[in-house]
Amino acid sequence: MVRKSDIVRKLVSEKKYKQALCIAKDFRLGITPSQSLKMKKAYECMVHERFYLSLGENINLCISEGIEVIEILYGKGEC
Asked: Taking the domains of the chain in order of start, what are their residue ranges?
């Protein structure tokens, strides 16, 4: 059985961050609330960019913070 975290590790290694964030944004175990928020916001900014721009969010910053978190959590694991 393939675990979701293994799928996320594979997607991160392939630099498919949008797909990886789509799965990992709902993870809870071993993830701080701050890390969770950054991943959720990064994914939301990727999917609903115009909405977050209208709110005055820095889209590139939000996305890069989410990618940084997912790289730290899942980028160094083995598939």
From this structure: 4-74
